[in-house]
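PROTEIN DESIGN WORKSHEET
SECTION A - STRUCTURE
LENGTH: 311
TOKENS:
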């Protein structure tokens, strides 16, 4: 069974003055797609194309949404926090601006423990919070810190620790690495890649940056003006983009990604590489055994200015 089944999803906002003459502004136009468990999906498109709106709909945070979104066959309806408790345990969210998303008066430990307390009633959450922070490379010394004492990259990692502490089936992330400097960006991308490859976590990630998508996602959904204009495996999309908007995004991408697409780097499909599982990259174990990095990981990681992680 699909994890997500989306049918005829539509979203309209009351028109702003700019759109005078139209009663509503169509932001999502009749989107239908499915997402399987463990799938890694990059959501790309120009600014204003509806990426964040789609993510909000998937999070069941958009009461104006029309159409139908099911998660594991159960219909999601925005607005009922209590009725969606089961969903909030299965799915976590990494917001675009980590610093703004962290409660300034809480310590890092309290921030990461909060979802455990709220959603599971866990009585001894400190050990799990500490473990989650360690998995994002922050040791016990960070437990007592407050958000203002963190760098942007550290705050982003705290937001990710908070999101992964419940071991979600899928992580919905809105530009999780944008705004980070190159070194931290590569580090956080490697962390997310590891979680997908090693824990089978699914990922739906909004990004305006195709090089980041190429390091993390096996499938790419391209949006333009609220419509889904291309939805294909990453390798096939890079090798032969179908839609003009995809070509525009590729032309604007870092040189390594553009080169990969123009060379027809690979026509690998998910079916041809069942050993790779959910992630774009081979597992850590495979790499430790001397297996090569996925070519897109290598090219994209080069575009990000860092070596792919080992061990
Ligand atoms: N709360 C809102 N009220 C009215 N219009 C909105 C709101 N949020 C987003 N929009 C509009 O919806 C469109 C899509 O926005 P968004 O989903 O944020 O795009 P993206 O994330 O791709 O940049 C934009 O035209 C934006 O102005
Ligand atoms: Mg957005």
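SECTION B - SEQUENCE
RESIDUE ASSIGNMENT:
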């Amino acid at each position: 069974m699909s994890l997500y089944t989306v049918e005829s999803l539509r979203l309209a906002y009351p028109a702003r003055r700019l759109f005078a003459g139209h009663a509503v502004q169509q932001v999502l136009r009749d989107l239908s797609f499915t997402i399987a468990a463990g799938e890694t999906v990059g959501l790309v498109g120009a600014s204003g194309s509806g990426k964040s709106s789609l993510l909000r709909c998937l999070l069941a945070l958009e009461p104006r949404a029309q159409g139908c979104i099911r998660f594991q066959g159960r219909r999601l309806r925005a607005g009922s926090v209590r009725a969606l408790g089961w969903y909030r345990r299965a799915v976590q969210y990494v917001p675009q601006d980590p610093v703004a998303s962290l409660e300034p008066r809480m310590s890092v430990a309290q921030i990461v423990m909060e979802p455990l307390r709220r959603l599971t009633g866990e009585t001894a959450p400190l050990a799990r919070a500490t473990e989650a922070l360690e998995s994002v490379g922050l040791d016990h010394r960070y437990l007592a810190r407050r958000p203002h004492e963190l760098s942007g990259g550290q705050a982003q990692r705290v937001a990710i620790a908070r999101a992964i502490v419940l071991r979600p089936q899928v992580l919905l992330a809105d530009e999780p690495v944008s705004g980070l400097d190159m070194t931290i960006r590569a580090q956080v991308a490697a962390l997310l890649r590891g979680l997908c490859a090693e824990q089978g976590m699914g990922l739906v990630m909004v990004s305006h940056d195709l090089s980041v998508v190429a390091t993390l996602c096996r499938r790419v959904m391209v949006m333009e003006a609220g419509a889904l204009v291309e939805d294909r495996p990453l390798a096939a999309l890079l090798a032969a983009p179908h839609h003009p908007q995809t070509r525009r995004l590729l032309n604007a991408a870092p040189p390594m990604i553009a080169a990969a697409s123009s060379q027809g780097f690979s026509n690998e499909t998910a079916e041809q590489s069942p050993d790779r599982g959910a992630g774009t990259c081979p597992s850590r174990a495979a790499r430790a055994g001397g297996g090569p990095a996925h070519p897109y990981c290598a090219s994209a990681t080069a575009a990000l200015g860092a070596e792919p992680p080992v061990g």
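SECTION C - NOTES
The domain at 40-63+85-304 is CATH 3.40.50.300 (Rossmann fold).
The radius of gyration is 19 Å.
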